[in-house]
Amino acid sequence: MPENQQIIEPLAKFHAQVYRNGRIAIPKNERDYFGIDQHDIVELIIRKIENGQIKGRGWFIAQLTVRGVLTIPLGLRKELDISDGDFVEVLLIGFIRIEDVVGERGLKIMRALRANDYRIISDEDEKRLLAMVAKGAYNMLFIAG
Question: Under the GO molecular function aspect, what terms does this record hold (predicted)?
């Protein structure tokens, strides 16, 4: 190999079984090592392997859900002929901690959305919220405040 040529490695490489609807999981030890958690966004290369040979590869980004689960896009699964039960090779090439992008307040809002958060409010709560809207001061304080 020439002196100026470097070997480029992904952050992590692992094999995953494809579950229902194209779901795979990033192993816990990889998530722990990089500090990747639910809601974070990962950038991946996925390889379809048959008989020890790479038959196709694709790139995508995905948002993690509980236990590091993400979904391979349907179009990519179709183009690479990836079916439920198949094993794929996964290269983690990047990630973004969602909290770094949206901040703690944004993360609270995202958690509330995923949890289908709601509240029963009183007449006074409703008046206060509507008054804030009228003043242009309402910004999801009930959730993130």
Answer: DNA binding
